[in-house]
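in:
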């Protein structure tokens, strides 16, 4: 890959630097490690792209060179999902259904990860709303795909712990918080948890996708029953991604009945 002409920096995080480049007359994204300390995360991310893809949920891997620690993926010019408001306003889209489709895609991705060919995977790099949104890209057809697969531990029988440090903040699930406030954090004493931490985070992510319009406020009311269950304090009481998806898909079919059909039924 040494012959690639590196273009503009598209984005970066703790683990990766992503640039535009041209390959076979197509604009693609070239991914390098940003910080040598995270080389294992970088390589794990590449392994996950290979193990889980190709499919419609995850960014498409085009090629890689292990020797140079670099890989190519599809380029998505609309960028990550933090920019959802800008993207919809710029394209003059005020349709709440299109925004809700991002929620549906998001839960489809979680459902895929929780039942993936590589086992039950948890989206660990999601300790704040912004961090979570940065891991997903919006495609030109306004669907959501997962881009950052560096931190997807597998929930075995014993559960998982995300990262090696104490997690804090209002976004993480209750069971991700250190439960012994009188003692300082010790990783080996932290009780493990499972994929239900992803379920806890669904309502704020979906609400962000819906935005702050009047239509979004009305629509959110219809999501309340399932979102309330996602926020159950005890993880076992939360629904599975499949159950949330079933609720979302039913709503998608029933709520957005077009006017013409309604009129005919009324006649
Ligand atoms: P890190 O693992 O370091 O967090 P990410 O994979 O999350 O890196 O990428 C960082 C940012 O780069 C993303 O939030 C997004 O804005 C941008 N980016 C990454 N890959 C692409 C891509 N294929 N197309 C467009 N933008 C991308
Ligand atoms: Mg990232
Ligand atoms: Mg990452």
């Amino acid at each position: 890959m040494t012959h690639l002409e590196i273009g503009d920096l598209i984005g970066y995080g703790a683990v990766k630097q992503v640039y535009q480049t041209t390959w076979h007359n197509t604009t693609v994204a070239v991914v390098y490690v940003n910080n040598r300390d995270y080389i294992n995360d970088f390589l794990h991310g590449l392994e996950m792209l290979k193990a889980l893809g190709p499919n419609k949920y995850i960014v498409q891997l085009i090629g890689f060179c292990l020797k140079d620690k670099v890989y190519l993926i599809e380029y998505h010019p609309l960028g990550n999902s933090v920019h959802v408001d800008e993207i919809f306003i710029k394209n003059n889209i005020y349709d709440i259904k299109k925004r809700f489709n991002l929620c549906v895609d998001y839960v489809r991705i979680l459902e895929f990860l929780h039942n993936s060919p590589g086992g039950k995977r948890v989206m660990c790099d999601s300790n704040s709303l912004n961090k979570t949104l940065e891991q997903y890209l919006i495609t030109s057809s306004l669907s959501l795909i997962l881009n950052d697969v560096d931190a997807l531990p597998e929930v075995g029988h014993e559960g998982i712990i995300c990262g090696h440090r104490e997690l804090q903040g209002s976004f993480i699930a209750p069971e991700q918080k250190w439960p012994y406030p009188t003692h300082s954090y010790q990783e080996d004493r932290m009780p493990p948890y499972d994929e239900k931490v992803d379920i806890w985070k669904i309502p704020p992510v979906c609400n962000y996708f819906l935005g702050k319009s009047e239509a979004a406020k009305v629509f959110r009311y219809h999501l309340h029953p399932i979102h309330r269950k996602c926020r159950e304090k005890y993880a076992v009481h939360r629904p599975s991604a499949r159950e949330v998806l079933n609720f979302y898909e039913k709503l998608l079919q029933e709520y957005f009945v077009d006017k013409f059909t309604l009129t005919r039924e009324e006649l």
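note: DSSP finds nine helices and seven strands in the chain.
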